[in-house]
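User: I've been trying to design a sequence by hand for this structure and keep getting stuck. Would you show me what you'd pick, starting by listing the structure so we're on the same page?

Assistant: Good idea, let's start from the same input. This is the structure you sent:
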């Protein structure tokens, strides 16, 4: 984790001084370190979250390599969110539909703000927003339904929220108004969210699916 933190700090410094080479080299390392942290765990939720972290690292590389690779990066992160979604659905099947109300409101509001600036990326961003909202919903659904791991449930919810906020800022700086300050803020939210999602992975004890409740 010390290595990941050092590379994250170097990336933020490179961003602040406008040094693209330093950004490319250092951006993917923090998330790869989180994936390595989960490598010894063998349960299903940890494997899915590790898969999401690796896909996120690919997305980081695509976004940093070239602006023309933005769609490839978007697809990589979409797959990462699907991996996290699978992890949380595997832990808790209870619907908790009431949680969809604030999550859907966040998704619709974010998309409506961005929509005038999206152009031919409108459909792609709409699909991405729907997927991350589903992941956010299922992450919050674990709160109160993981009695053996209550702290990990909160890490899942807070990590997913931080990631969703980070993605919103990514879209804003990409499509509406570039900003170095927002670029630094979104990376802090992103890495904090990824750390919390990694911390939410179940321990090595086998995942036990709770009964489905209405």
């Amino acid at each position: 984790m010390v290595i990941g933190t050092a590379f994250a700090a170097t990336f933020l410094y490179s961003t602040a001084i406008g040094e693209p080479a330093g950004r490319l080299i250092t951006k993917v390392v923090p998330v790869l370190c989180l994936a390595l942290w989960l490598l010894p765990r063998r349960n299903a939720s940890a494997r899915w979250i590790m898969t999401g972290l690796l896909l996120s690292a690919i997305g980081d590389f695509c976004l940093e390599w070239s602006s023309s690779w933005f769609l490839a990066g978007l697809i990589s992160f979409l797959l990462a969110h699907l991996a996290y979604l699978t992890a949380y659905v595997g832990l808790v099947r209870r619907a908790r539909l009431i949680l969809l109300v604030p999550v859907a409101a966040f998704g619709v509001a974010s998309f409506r703000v961005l929509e005038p600036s999206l152009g031919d990326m409108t459909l792609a961003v709409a699909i991405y927003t729907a997927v991350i909202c589903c992941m956010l919903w299922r992450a919050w659904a674990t709160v109160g339904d993981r009695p053996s791991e209550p702290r990990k449930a909160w890490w899942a919810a807070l990590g997913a929220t931080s990631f969703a906020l980070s993605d919103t800022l990514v879209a804003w700086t990409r499509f509406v108004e570039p900003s170095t300050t927002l670029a630094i803020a979104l990376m802090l939210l992103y890495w904090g969210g990824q750390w919390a999602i990694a911390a939410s992975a179940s321990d090595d004890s086998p995942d036990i699916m709770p009964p489905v409740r209405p």
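That's my pick for every position. To get oriented when you compare it with your attempt: The radius of gyration is 17 Å. The chain has a mean pLDDT of 92.
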